[in-house]
Each structure stands twice: as structure tokens, then as C-alpha cells.
Amino acid sequence: xxxxxRILISNDDGYHAPGIEALYHALKDLGxxxxxxxxxxxxxxxxxxxLDRPLNVRQTDNGFYTVNGTPTxxxxxxSTGFFEHRPDIVVSGINNGQNMGDDTLYSGTVAAxxxxxxxxxxxxxxxxxxxxxxxxxxxxxxxxxxVQMFLEKNIRTALLWNINIPNVPLAELKGFEVTRLGRxxxxxxxxxxxxxxxxxxxxIGAAGEVKDGADGTDFHATAQGRVSVxxxxxxxxxxxxxADTASLVNGLL
Length: 253
What we know:
- By secondary structure, this protein is of the alpha/beta class.
- The protein has helices spanning 18-27, 71-79, 108-118, 136-152, 218-223, 242-249; strands spanning 6-10, 32-38, 57-59, 65-67, 89-95, 123-128, 160-165, 176-178, 183-184, 191-194, 200-203, 210-212, 227-231.
- It is built from six helices and 13 strands.
- Strand 5 (89-95), helix 3 (108-118) and strand 6 form a beta-alpha-beta unit.
């Protein structure tokens, strides 16, 4: 498995981002590594699929495949017939900035890994806590440890892990911690600006400050210098609310 594994790499920062370059070089000797990523930055694309137009795929000089679509498009194409074989593992990132707490709902990095999970393979999403690519090589070596472990243990089960790495040298990381997602406060207000014609346009406001960063959360672990590992699931059913919901809808028809 380790020498023949088909490893698919994607991201949401675009095929040219330093994070995906570092990830590729860290993993390229672990198996048959393919990169398929958006042709531009698609941060915040979440799980969107492009259904209103056809997609174009091009191969760059370094062998990466680029798609004029979303991170989910990339993994979906790679898993449903573009390549002769489906991947054995999907690795997304390394993202330019954290994907913790509520961020995971919007993250294209997590979405790419989630698409791999939905296709039935183990999938890992990697992000650095701070933006700017500081200590990106250390983060890439952390990612390599995870992928190598999955391959050595021959893990075939569809798992979805969200991993956030502090921007410090490898020797300064204080281990790994399995965490739950924290929470953020409501996002800041939209920014209204005017263009040269006096027409209003709008920028989405910054993410809210941390609301729940208690011990055991991804926010807390990374603040202590540890790599946060959060297993995710896709089932959004509010099981605790099912009885109350049933009482509300009873008799509607």
C-alpha cells in the first residue's frame, strides 16, 4: 500500500499556492501522487459544485492539474472518472490560515477532504493556524507523518480529519491533541464601499472572535502549541430536537 498508494492532493488557495507545493514535495515519494486544484484562490467555497457551466482541466508544466472550479469540483472529478483509478487517500491543503470551529462550514480546504470522504476514502484537511506561510516546511512534515501513518496502517475506512498546525518549527511543536470544534461569535458586519461610479459594493466582514475556546477545543490546543486533530462527520441531523420537531409538525396536514 505505502509504495503504490494513489494520493490525491487538492486545496482551496489555488494550484500555485506555497502550501500545496510544500505538501506535494513532502508526499511525492510516498506513492503515486496527483495534484488537482483550482486554477485560482477559492477560499470560502465550502462544498459547492459547479453545475451551471462545464469545467476545464489543464495540466501545468509541473504536472499539476488545474480546474476552473471549486475544491469540491476537483476532488469530485478526480474520484468519478477523470483519472483511470480513484484515489486511495485525499489530502487537502496546506491552507493559508486556520480552519477551526465554525470556519469548517465555509472552508474549501475542509470541503475538498469532505468530498474525498463522501467518495469512500480516508481524507485529511491540513491548515496552518496563522496566515503568511510561516514555517510551511514544518507543517508539510507534520502532514507527511499523518499520511505515512495512514498508509503504513493500511487504513481504507472513510475517515475525515481536520488538522490545524501552529506556525512553529517542528521541534517546537508540543505534540498532538484530538479535539472538538470550538465556536466563534457572529461575524463582523459587512463592509460597504463605493466604486468610481459611486455604486455601492460589499465585502464580507471578518470572522467573529473565539466564543468557545475551552480546554478540549481546536482553538485551545493550537494556542498551547499542539497540533489539533478533529474527526468530523457529515450527518447534520439534530437528533436532540427530533421529538420537539415532531410535536410542532404533528397535525399540519
